[in-house]
Records
---
Amino acid sequence: MQSRSLTLLFACAIVALAVLVPFAQSPALTLLSKDGTRQLPIAIVSNQEFVALDDLAGVFQLAVHEEGQGAITVTYHGRTIVLTADQSLASVAGRLISLPAPPVRNGRRWLVPVEFISRALGPIYDSRIDLRKPSHLLIVGDLRVPRVTVRYDVIGTGARLTIDATPRATSTVSQDGDHLTVKFDADALDITNPPLPSQGAQGLVLAVRVADPTTLVVDLGPRFAGFRAASQPVDAAMRQVVDFIAAQTDAQAAPPQPPPTTAPAPPPELPPSFSPPVPTLRTIVVDPGHGGDDQGAQGETTKEKDLAMAVARRLKAAIESRLGVRVLLTRDDDRLVPIDDRPALANNNKADLFISLHANASMRRSASGATVYSAAFDSNAAAQATPGERVPTFGGGLREIDLVPWDLAQTRHIDESTMFAGLLERTFRDRVPLANRAVDRAPLRVLQSANMPAVLIEMGYLTNPEQEKLLSGDSFQNALVQSVYDAIVRFRDTIAGGTR
């Protein structure tokens, strides 16, 4: 037992170090399980990452046989995966799934895309498989390996370190000489951003580094005098905030000098049209439709709830990394969120934009194309949405306010929602196949209660076999995310220009 624990500790250290090394230097998947860690070599073929089937066979106890006519069978405990050379479709226990590329031969070995592990092997394997391709991590079993991100901000003469662990993992902070240690209650860490550069810390923090599989170390600088730490849950993450207090310098401690005998020159006048820039988008809520027992529309191999979740995660990552805007998901796992709770999350977080992601279905198998919806209301909605009421103010007197029923909150934002839907339709052109009626309005409950511009995107039809294959592919999902991102940028620029 002690030998196995030491093996896991050493193996986890490899995981922690591997995520800090550029991929080009070490093209491998790091597999982490309760039995230890090992490296699975990666081969790059046409800019696509592949792993060898015989390497997977040794790790996952698979039987691999090459049949006639280019067929390859992979068997695990009586469950079979059938692959075909030059085909990106695979049969997994009788169900078809898509891969980003077909298997390729390398000498006597067959290589498969790394997504084979999660899409084909995952559904038939006895333990949970979590493939984290950006980090080149493969986690097998119920290990706690949170994704950890680190952000450093200068605040006045001090600084703040914000550490998010997703899913939630608690951590404790303690000081040991010139270092702070942040210890996580986890089996290992998945670090998704590099350590801080020393030049960005202004003498308070020199670097953040991985000390062991579950511990971060903060190297303190010469200006460090003390710290305060606090943690709180934020969405699906546990956030640890460490505030650094700077030592008082001689210049700061010196008594104030008497004012000069002559008044300083007045500052230059600003142009009449100048006004400080005001951020127009701070929070966006992305709503992956359905979840849990509510699977939504279904194709031959694809469920709407899974497709919506996959695209929502890509969209969140793109917006946060490229725009610096906070993005909240109404769900971050396979669970059912009540329909009223989805806009409620956006309202309670004062979101500036609400985007609900779905896929369509039709009795006509030929139906295809994306549609963008904004909310529609009956003719009496406007009258119900704007009743005035006079209420007392703290300073005395009365003030008239508008009281809007919960299910009519969207009425105030119809024009902006319609505008955003039009921007989406324009950015979708030549990238995302569109339905005959690409922009429409409908009395959708998930939109009607949103107190901000809101749209619902039907990405395509899962009941159309050709479109189902398209929707499940990386190329389509990346194109759709890029299109939504471009529309958000245009929307931001438009409302910043004074139309909001």
---
Amino acid sequence: METFEQKFNDCSDKIERIFNITSIASKVIAPDLTILKVNNALVQLLGFTEQELLGSRILDYACPEYKAHWHNLQKELWENQVKEFVIEVCLIKKDKSLVWVKVTTVLFNEDGNTYGYSVLDDFTWRKNFEQAELELKDALTKSQSAEIKLQLNEQRLTRVLETMAEGVAIVDNSGKTVYANPKARQILGYTTGDNKNKHYASPAGRNLRVDGSALPFNEHPITIMMVNRKAVFEREIAVQSHNHERKYISINAAPLIDDTGELIGGIGTFMDITAKRKLSLLKDEFITIASHELNTPITTLQGSLQLLKRIKNTSSHPKMSLLIDQANKSMNFLTVLIADLLQASRMNNGQPTLRYTHFKLSALINGCCSYIRLNEEYNLITEGDTELAVDADADRIDQVLTNFISNAIKYAPQSKDIRIVIEDLGNDIKVSVIDAGSGIAADKVPHLFEKYYGINIEGEQSSGLGLGLYLSSEIVKRHNGTIGVESVLNQGSSFWFTLPKLLENY
């Protein structure tokens, strides 16, 4: 019994003649939709060989969104024996590119068998033209508002640049400034409208290296960027204005290259790092001072211990008591320094945890600074409402009071009476330590509670690490209190702090 394929091969040569004379991609399919014959035009259209196409289904080459509809048309063609169907579909070629075709399929009978004959008319050019036409119409529509949008974008960019906390400047290929935002003008010392045509290497002040020496032209970050045509990052220089104010700035710079590869200028961003650099210098100075402060008591302690070792078997030696006192004094000084350093570190890391207890402030005041009271050189006088009590960390508040009183003795030694006043402010309790010393200069008062402020980087320094008042400030703040100082030259100073008031007192 002949197979379907054998019967097809015995058909008339009419199909062969059609295939041979047409340049339109054509195929013959069986009722199961497999391809029985293809012409060379279809091979060229899809890029697959004849052997690859035979036995496959044309639906296998369709883009997914067309498969279901095409299959339904094929099914209706064969089951209902409709005359023909036409569909426009997108096919995927062997090279993964797309081709648009109009497929017309009809049925024909040969020797009692039914076959499908399809022609695929390529209209990709029309589809591309339609797409190009749509894109052109869209471009024309967009171009009508392009100028308005450009203006809006320029306005937005200007607003962003004008409000940036970082300086931004643009220079042309000769190095002249064509734009500088307000922050850049501030950093570089330009006045309003004064930035045009300024050369980047000639700001209102002088360009310096960070060590203070003159900055050569070829070392300027913008010069390096312009010469190498590569971006530079975080290059630090100093700028000194005519009023001798020196600023340290960090510069990032990138070249501006046009479509032909020519350098047309550069853009630079500036960050004022003066405060950061001064802090770095302050830390370096702190290490120097800390080393000095620690070295002095250690040397004294070592000397005392060496002498004690020599006379240890002579208990009646006249220097025995003095050496022991010196050793204890040096040890106490070391203990305080190390405790301050450790506590400052804990403060930076969010520690320490406060241990709240309920106590009268007057009792705490009477117990603190016992070594001062025993010395009897200074009078610690408690005044005010002695019945007021607080919930607080007694050890920490004692530390604040001790620091205030010790500072009064250190910096106002002529003030033999030191008053400690407790006041009821309604919602808070205020404690003030008042001396009658020489007072503090007004320009120094705002900085007294800053870390390391006891160290003066111009060369003058007070003893200690400059941590006492800083630690006191942090302790009071962690108690939700406030801290401050009032001072008048030649009249004395009042260091004070407040703590939240209790609803009930002892």
---
Amino acid sequence: MFYLDIFGGEVERLVKSGGVWQLAPPVAGQPTPTAWASGLSFVVALRVGPDGALWFVQHAFSHPTPTLVRIRPIPTRTVTVISGDAQIGPASEGLSAPLVVQIRDLQGAPLPGADVYFTPSPGAVLSNTGPVAADANGFAQASVRAPLAGGEFSVSVASPSSVSAVTFDLFSRRLDADVNGSNLTVSIDNRTFAPNPQVPYVVMLSFPGSPTFPTVVGPLCVDPTYALAVVIEDGIGAFGNVSFSGAGGFGNPGMTRTYPLPPGLFTGLLLRFQAVGFDAVGGWFRTNCETHQF
């Protein structure tokens, strides 16, 4: 246990032995036999962070410069990305592959049982809470659900006393539909690693009642064969290359299309929108199912 003398500016340590807390024996580098650190004047908060470091704040009223300071442990391990990086998945759905890292000591040996912390960016949700214990070979993994908002997101991974954290660079593929005045706007937020970013789409909408349609890329909430479903963009050619916007069904790699509507056409209806596309690197994909009450 670390504790701090706010007026003396010294950090001291306690250890528990036989159910009794007592002053910890000194370690190499201590400024005095009792003080583990000194010179920490005007500190008003001291915490141990998930990275194993001590974090403290020096108060602006008493200290010339308000300061947030990190005292980190000497690095003893490394974190390496093994698999799961650069994934793209439908918004608000789980990515297809787990995020896998390996923890090793500085000599390269795996560290079984090491605590590993996965920290997602806002909106993304992990399958687990708290640290993940590395297995016998130093591997740790977590599954993540993409944020509802489209675009880039990330998951950083660290282990206490690791040299540095690693980051998984991920993407939430999202279709959004909205009515502004007499216009329906459908936009797709997408990413591709193909050298040619032209992506063909089939964009569909359905009135209430469409059954789920199974496909190789997962279930679609709009069945294009349903009587009250409409394909509004076809960049693939499966539906006669129809384009109700007149701009075609190709994105670069995302796409935004606007459709004039007769007044009151969708008023009071709950419609579903979804798109499938083909990526030259990743193959066939689908977007999220966007449900919109008009």
